[in-house]
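Sample intake sheet
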Amino acid sequence: MARTNPAGTDAVTVPAAALNGFAREVFARSGMPAADAGTVADVLVWANLRGVDSHGVMRMPQYVNLIEAGDLNPRPAITVGGETAAAVLIDTDRAAGPIAMSAAMQHALRKAGEAGIGMAFARATTHTAALGYYTQSAARSGMAAIALSGSIPMMAYHGARAAGVSTSPISIAVPARDRDPLVFDMGTGIVSMGRLNQARKTGQPIPEGWALDRNGNPTTDPKAVHVPLPMAGPKGSGLALMIECIVSLIAGNPLLAERMEGTAYGKRHRQNGMAIAIDVARFGDPERFRREVSRLIAAIKALPPAAGADEVLVPGERGDRVQRQRGRDGIPLPRAIVDELAALAAKLGVPMFA
């Protein structure tokens, strides 16, 4: 049962199962087959469980709006556009990102099982959600995995005052021994667009150096935010540019230039993704690999903490802890997000989570 948090927190805590069931029903009512609705719900709620709320259920209204606009196809016909011994190109037919990326990772895993390494391009998808979901699932099966995603211009290019690249994320995961997989998941911006959108909805101020307004000026006003800035300046924007070349241009579905040149094609919401899987057993003893990953983690965590730090954390460790805590106690949702979900539920005639 959902419950309101103590006064001052302005949040509602919802059990993960209840939130997942609500999301499934919303997407099913929006036209998705039950299995696909379940996959999208699983991916979004997983992000909330991990504390990546910017890629969680707050995205539900966006997904429904994309369906209504014709940009997201709730019943896509995903086809193979080309295939080699170790790679495959799939045309996702504007599928929801979680459907497209799950399919891409499954193809990559299949190819890795056959050739030792597998790669799959997902062409013409929509918002890919948290990439860590797909790489972690691959690592749980014993594979090492990498995922990339490209989107329309939404982040300032270093040295420019306007959006020129996407916040193109990258995730890498490897299996370990006697612990959860080691999962790294980052965007190329100082902050994700989703987190800025959440700040805009909740009215939470943002730090200096995060974003620009519509005139290209720095701002800390969440209502005035227009584009985030790249992490590490030229490094972040350069990495985003190269991800577009690898993920979009090789797949024959350019995104950035189309939007910046103002073509009709570029005005639509589109993304591309890429999944890579590596069968570590083809290159050595997989159990030794897992032991060495855990050994490396232990060595990193044994380093002396910096001033002000309680401990040294490795990628995904904070998310693992948050997932355990939220899986037990429920997922806190800001009141502004709950209100948006309530409006969506009323629109589609779906009961809200209790």
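Comment: The chain has a mean pLDDT of 95. The longest strand covers residues 117-125.
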